[in-house]
Task: inverse folding
């Protein structure tokens, strides 16, 4: 990908009304654009990151048997009235069509759609369990939306719903999803700082867990047991000041961001929509449900919150818009141009994703600071000075360590040192 | 993909209020589910088709230099007021947030978002041309929505926008997009029956063209010049009863479905949002724009409208949820089961996408009629009778021709006969 073809440039300043670090950096680096509070456009670099997150999540959802579907954004009022949430869910966007004369909600979650959808199939015990997921836009009518990608009025979520004959079966699958979520957060580079949290508050206190990533900009406070790698959230601590796994009372208070949640819905929604199944003995029983969410856009924002420095974003290799940022620096001689093109083509040929800063009218300083801001994991510099010795420079964005490598040895060096993991 | 794992079964009847053939067949075959008029869920098989359409379109958009972005569904009122379309576009969904106290539109198209987005980059002549596209949900507040996937209240579109320094450059790119669209419709199996149509009606009469696919269920009437492979639509015919390419007056009246449109917007939107660029001589000039749409969901519906028979859908290989439908038929002996599994695993190993009807409690007749309804291009039957001779049966869904092939020869036969194109 040639940087000269990218229309969306880096910026020195984020919009004045943007207070969240994740949005400030992502806007300045040209990954997203703010349309209004809590509503963003994904620009080419940002969409590349989003697609990588999507692929990681989709892979793990398929690995635990998830079948992908795509449900609508527009929901009819009648379904939300059945569960009572038309009037109780404060953040629900509700409106009436002028022509269609129907009242709609914009989906903030999809229990009200998926439960009657599955109900239409007249299940028998043989059909269960069933696991269905989607990756879709979601909407919340937030009073204020000041946290960038962490809390949008419009955001992108993966929601998985599971349908079981028994609570035991739900419990078994719930643990499987927990494992898949741990893999996803590990792959996204935040495994170390993400805790499985015993949740509370709201309707599902006893049946729900969250995944919380430690960050100073998080909205939640959790209490972490370092030895067990689990946490409890603020509401639980009032009742029971101890680790739910080992009983330790040595819990550390931390700010955290909720990056995922898993709920045992049990028969709450299947009862509302009469979603039953015919059991072996011919009797009708209620289906037992679970639901499991990860915000893709929130995960993107979280990674930026926990992985940046004063110069910009530091992407993990798994989510970066490219693995390498190749910079052609200094007087634009024909020799240098040729070398830079040769290096670029060599990398492309090897299938190594490379952003090539081939811009002609940009100073070295600007290229360096743009590269730090954009935050691609490894920077390769080609310059007149290095060229004389047949060398290129390789720099690690995170550790800032620099190595000088012979141009001919570059690809094997990268594969051995950086890209093997 | 094992059919026994698919929860969404085929149906004998579509919903009574569903009059469109495309929706009737897609619902009966388990590709989509109707949530309300003009709003559908894509089930696993339907989403597979949608993803294939998406890949075809994305490939061709990239081939003509398109960079992918993703713009929001929620638009602020202010932008739609700038172009006047807040009050003039009748099908615009408009509403006020209860908490956010802002008025929103749901995007039916994105000129009001992309023009100020690009305007923010302070373009110079060096930045142009720019080509940006997205694949995103769109919304129209339709009075009635009775045409299934052909006219949804919620639908999925690819919209490409181009930005140029001059009208000449727009004209050149416009022809490139025309070529890309022809490739897309050819790949989607409707190239032969899709015509480049000189459009009229509405604001852009002189500057717009449509791609119209001949179908009895289309909403449009076009006049086709068979020799030139172009058409004109009903409004133009009143003024000028002749082929715009060859001047022939021998035009045939036909019903057609609009599957794509291309517009020369010129400076309509750049003027509204003061989207200029700095030219070589330092002067400020208006950017010249084009926009180009294809409805992915409408394309899916169109293919079903023009490619089905009394038994069900007939997918082109390029869009089918799988290339082969493998049916295990008759008494479920251990020998038959083993053979069917062996054939299935052999096909999967070869990377041939196969839907395997491994259901145990379903009659042969039901499997055959389900297979015709679902419409995968090639059906492979494994039965006790065939097994005795070491044979399998291969049937072409479209021509209904049947061939008996030795099991050992199946993969080479398929590759040679069907899957090579």
Result:
């Amino acid at each position: 990908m040639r940087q000269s073809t990218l229309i969306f440039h880096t910026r020195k300043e984020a919009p004045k009304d943007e207070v969240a670090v994740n949005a400030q950096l992502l806007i300045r680096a040209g990954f997203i654009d703010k349309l209004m509070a809590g509503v963003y456009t994904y620009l080419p670099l940002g969409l590349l990151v989003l697609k990588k997150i999507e692929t990681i999540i989709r892979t793990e959802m398929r690995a635990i048997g998830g079948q992908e579907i795509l449900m609508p954004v527009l929901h009819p009022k009648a379904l939300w009235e059945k569960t009572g949430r038309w009037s109780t869910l404060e953040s629900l966007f509700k409106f009436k069509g002028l022509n269609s004369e129907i009242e709609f909600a914009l989906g903030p979650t999809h229990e009200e759609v998926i439960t009657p959808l599955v109900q239409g199939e007249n299940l028998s015990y043989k059909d269960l369990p069933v696991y269905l997921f989607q990756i879709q836009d979601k909407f919340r009518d937030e009073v204020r939306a000041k946290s960038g990608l962490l809390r949008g009025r419009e955001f992108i979520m993966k929601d998985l719903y599971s349908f079981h004959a028994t609570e035991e079966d739900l419990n078994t699958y719930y643990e499987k999803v927990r494992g898949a979520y741990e893999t996803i957060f590990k792959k996204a580079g935040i495994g170390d700082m993400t805790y499985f949290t015993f949740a509370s508050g709201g309707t599902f206190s006893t049946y729900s867990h969250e995944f919380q990533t430690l960050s100073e900009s998080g909205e939640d406070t959790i209490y972490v047991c370092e030895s067990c790698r689990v946490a409890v959230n603020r509401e639980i601590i009032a009742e029971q000041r101890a680790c739910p796994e080992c009983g330790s009372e040595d819990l550390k208070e931390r700010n955290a961001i909720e990056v995922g949640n898993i709920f045992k819905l049990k028969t709450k929604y299947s009862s509302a929509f009469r979603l039953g199944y015919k059991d072996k003995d011919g009797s009708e029983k209620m289906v037992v449900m679970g639901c499991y969410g990860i915000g893709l856009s929130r995960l993107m924002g979280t990674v930026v919150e926990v992985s940046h420095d004063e110069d910009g974003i530091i992407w993990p290799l798994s989510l970066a818009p490219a693995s390498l940022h190749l910079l052609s620096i200094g007087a634009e001689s024909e020799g240098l141009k040729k070398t830079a093109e040769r290096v670029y083509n060599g990398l492309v040929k090897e299938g190594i994703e490379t952003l090539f800063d081939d811009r002609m009218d940009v100073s070295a300083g600007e290229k360096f600071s743009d590269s730090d801001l954009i935050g691609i994991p490894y920077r390769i510099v080609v310059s007149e000075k290095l060229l004389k010795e047949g060398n290129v420079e390789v720099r690690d964005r995170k550790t800032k360590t620099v190595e000088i490598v012979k141009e001919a040895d570059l690809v094997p060096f990268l594969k051995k040192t950086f890209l093997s993991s």
